Amino acid sequence: MSESMVLRPAVIVDDRDEYITYAGRHWKQAESASALKQTLTVLDSEDLSAAAANQQTALRNCLNVSAVQGASDVTLYGVLEGELEMRYSPGDNGTLSSALVVPPENAGASLAGHELLRLNASSRDSLHTGGLAVCPKKGKLNVDYLTYTPTSDTPINGRDIIVDDRYEGVRYAGSWEKRSARLVMGTGYDGTMTSTNRKGDAMRFEFFGSSVAVYGILNQVEGELVVDFAVDGRMGDRVVLFDGSQEVGNASRWTFNKPLWEVEEMAPGHHALYVELRSVSGSQVLNLDSIIYTSSVDSISQTLPGSTDPWARPPSSSFESTASSKAATMGTIVGVLLGLLFGCLFCAVLYRRCSSFPVQTPPPPAPSSLSALMANGNGDASANRYSGTRGMRSGLEMAEVDRYRHGLPEYDPEAGIANPPPPYRPKEEEEEEEEVGQVQGRR
After folding, report:
1. Residue 172 near residue 203 (C-beta atoms within 8 A)
2. Residue, of 270 and 398, whose pLDDT is higher
3. Where are the residues of the annotated region Disordered (predicted)?
4. Domains and CATH numbers, the chain
5. In 3-state terms, what secondary structure has residue 212?
6. Under a CB-based contact definition with an 8 Å cutoff, are residues 269 and 302 in contact?
7. What are phi and psi for residue 195, nearest 5 degrees?
């Protein structure tokens, strides 16, 4: 796929998913740190008999996926170990086609997350009548996962949806950088990642679902990397990805498909995911690769009201994409200046009318507490954490305001009135008489 193209959200099927079946007795299960859910299903062509290479018997040793019926842009991902030649059959006509995958130059002996087979939209008609079968002819087939782009007729309720880091519905705030994820040891989803090493940079994504997970790419280098995660502005987790004590020495050591944080169960419906870089040092960088969530709607045509793109999510007024246009920025500045001008004129007129009347200053209100601010959001300060979260925690709870959703600033005691002045009280009669006597004595 071209670097300029961005994959749309797709249904993702893991190699151990019930929607994939494996024919024959030579398939083996394996583990890999850089595989999705750390699992692979493997078939080496050397384990097959000579008869298995024959077209009539090849289908007896294939992986079969029936869930792709009615879909388009089907892609098979896996770990590439040398040259791989495959046979595949889209649909149920039994005709086998061939595909050859050659490792890129300067690649390592094993490439994680590599695209092994892609069937584009031109194959959609054949996929309507059947599933997909794939088997190796030469080399080792290491199956990691499969994705397919659903159409409006494809059921997606309860299915896992993968979203690329560059998809337009993923909003970034700060100094994020879009980078290539085609590395010596493997490839990120769609060959991309979005990265930052600046504290406070954040990401936001809205979805309809019942679970969510954030995936990234980790580099085993020196430094600390701490990230905050939350859903719907409620309590989340502060995850220590690296605490600075990790073994380093090989800057080319990468881990792909790393689940940085996940919520395994939540109420089905509309949710907002938030990610913020909390602490970073040394050579560490936060690399976001993809988001996977379980859909709670039946079709991609079911979206937020007013959305023109079935997958698009409207940006928050206080959490805009870093790609906002200069025209929008200038319009905001002009609007603010005009507002200030009219405000000053209004205050001047009001001051002239009220200057002849005595004004009593009311006591200033007490500063708002953090719990009161949270009560204005999507939950209170005592809200329980979502169940099923996983990851190394620092022991610090992230009880912060959902400032990106409601425009509230981060709570800072020093920014408010730490010691408010006492309310105004009239002087007592004795104090007034004493002052009058002092004035008369001076006369």
Report:
1. yes
2. 270
3. 403-443
4. 12-152 (2.60.120), 155-321+369-407 (2.60.120.260)
5. strand
6. no
7. -130, 155
